[in-house]
Amino acid sequence: GSMATPATLVRALAALPTPDVPVRPPFTDVVALGDGRFALTAIGDGYLLDLGADTMRQYFCYEPGGFPEDEEQRTTAVAYDPVAARLYAQPRTFDAAGALLRSEVAAYAADTGADVAWRSLPDDLDAGGMVADADGLLLGAGSRLYRYDLTTYALTATDDLARFGVGRIAGLGLDAAAQRLVVVDGARGELVELDLGALAR
C-alpha cells in the first residue's frame, strides 16, 4: 500500500550549478549515485551533478560521435547499478520530423560515463522509469513493468501496476534493503510504495 512520507528538497532546479555543456531541456530523469552525486538526463545528454563540489558536467552522452545532426535522442529513464558500476538509459531516436526511428537500452561505465553496450528494444517501449537489481533491469512503461535480462537481452512483461491504481509510471526507485519498489505515478502525481514480494515476476 501507499505510505505518506514527507519529501525533502535536495536542490531546486533553478539553483543547480551551471553545466559545462548547455542543457537541452527538460531534465527527464534522475538517479542517485551516492555521496551527494546524481546522474540527470536531458535531451541528448546525461549530466553528473555533484552537490558537494557544486558542479554539473556532461557525463554520459547518448548521442554518440558521428550521430546525424538531424536526429535527436531522448530518454525518460536512467538507472544505476553500484555493484556492476554501470549506468543504464533507454534512448529513443527521432528524426527531424519527430518520427521514432529506434528504441534501445544503453549501458555506460559509471566511473567515466563511456558507452559500454547498446541493445535494441521494441519501438513501442517508452520507459518512464527504470531500476537495476541483481536480476538485470526493471523498466516501467505506461502502467506495466518489464524485466530486461542483461545476459540474454530478453524483454518480458511482468506485472501491470494498474491493479495498484498506478496510471502512468513516470519514475521508479528501489529500496533493496526494505524490498520496496517506489513508483512515481505521473497520472495522479503520487508516490506509491509497493512490496517487491507482491509483484509478479
Describe this structure in words.
With 201 residues, the protein is mainly β. The chain contains no helices and 17 strands. The protein has strands spanning 29-34, 37-42, 45-50, 55-61, 72-74, 78-81, 86-89, 92-94, 100-109, 115-121, 129-133, 136-141, 144-148, 155-160, 169-175, 180-185, 190-195. The strands form four sheets. Strands 5, 6, 7, 8, 9 and 10 form a six-stranded antiparallel sheet that branches. It has a four-stranded antiparallel sheet with strand order 1-2-3-4, with no helix packed on it. A hairpin with a 2-residue loop joins strand 11 (129-133) and strand 12. The radius of gyration is 16 Å and the shape is globular. The two termini are 18 Å apart. The model has no long low-confidence stretch (mean pLDDT 89).
Offer a quick outline of the entry.
The chain is an all-beta fold. The chain is built from no helices and 17 strands.
How are the SSEs placed, and which strands pair?
Elements (H helix, E strand, L loop, with lengths): L28 E6 L2 E6 L2 E6 L4 E7 L10 E3 L3 E4 L4 E4 L2 E3 L5 E10 L5 E7 L7 E5 L2 E6 L2 E5 L6 E6 L8 E7 L4 E6 L4 E6 L6
Antiparallel strand pairs: 1-2, 2-3, 3-4, 5-8, 6-7, 7-9, 8-9, 9-10, 11-12, 12-13, 13-14, 15-16, 16-17
Number of helices: 0
- Helicity, in percent? under 10%
**What value does the Rg take, in angstroms?**
16 Å
* Shape descriptor: globular
**N/C terminus separation:** 18 Å
Main beta sheet strand tally, sense and closure: 6 strands, antiparallel
Return the structural class. mainly beta
In oligomeric terms, what are we looking at?
single chain
Helix and strand string, N-terminal first? EEEEEEEEEEEEEEEEE
Strand content: over 45%
Total count of strands: 17
Low-confidence parts: none
Mean pLDDT: 89
